TrEMBL record:
<dbReference type="InterPro" id="IPR007685">
    <property type="entry name" value="RelA_SpoT"/>
</dbReference>
<protein>
    <recommendedName>
        <fullName>RelA/SpoT domain-containing protein</fullName>
    </recommendedName>
</protein>
<dbReference type="InterPro" id="IPR043519">
    <property type="entry name" value="NT_sf"/>
</dbReference>
<feature type="domain" description="RelA/SpoT">
    <location>
        <begin position="1"/>
        <end position="113"/>
    </location>
</feature>
<dbReference type="GO" id="GO:0015969">
    <property type="term" value="P:guanosine tetraphosphate metabolic process"/>
</dbReference>
<dbReference type="Pfam" id="PF04607">
    <property type="entry name" value="RelA_SpoT"/>
</dbReference>
<dbReference type="InterPro" id="IPR052366">
    <property type="entry name" value="GTP_Pyrophosphokinase"/>
</dbReference>
Length: 172
């Protein structure tokens, strides 16, 4: 609900609720990080909803500048648009991390931008893309990731925020 309110009051103030794609929807998070499994699921959804599919947004093949990756399939049911989001574990982890940092700092970092958190998000996505391709992220990216993580942790600590939930102790 907060995202819907944000869309109709600030980001997209002229948006009509009947045209909003994600007022109804669902998210499927695979139990793996296999892009091939994600593509198989996408094919199943598109086949099952064939006549009702209105649009597909492939943010895996073409990630957003923010680093966001997923496949969105918009279908029409009872004259309402419903968005089905498909993600791997890493894609979901990335989105949850950005949502957590947005909540902690009180700023929407999901949109494209140039803040420290958004730089961290783009770099994290870049490293996840390498891992998804079976590659080891390059040393410079890993170093930059550690540096950005430390800077964000410092800022969070300065605000009295718990760092654990945002980073989960994971290193890439």
């Amino acid at each position: 609900m907060p995202t819907i309110l944000e869309k109709i009051t600030s980001r997209e103030s002229k948006l009509d609720l009947s045209r909003m794609q994600d007022i109804g929807g669902c998210r499927v998070v695979l139990s793996s990080n296999e892009i091939s499994e994600l593509r198989r699921l996408e094919a199943c959804v598109r086949e099952r909803w064939a006549e009702a599919v209105r649009r597909t947004s492939d943010y895996v093949g073409r990630p957003r500048a923010s680093g966001y990756r997923a496949v969105h399939v918009v279908v029409e049911q009872d004259q309402r648009l419903i968005e089905i989001q498909l993600r791997t574990q890493r894609m979901h982890q990335w989105a949850q991390r950005v949502e957590g940092l947005s909540a902690a700092f009180g700023t929407n970092y999901k949109q494209d931008g140039e803040s420290l958190v958004q730089e961290y998000a783009r770099l994290t996505a870049k490293m996840y893309i390498a891992l998804d391709a079976g590659e080891i992220p390059v040393h410079e990216d890993r170093q930059q990731f550690e540096r950005l993580s430390a800077l964000i942790a410092e800022e969070l600590a300065g605000l009295g925020k718990n760092v654990g939930p945002m980073f989960g102790g994971e290193s890439i």
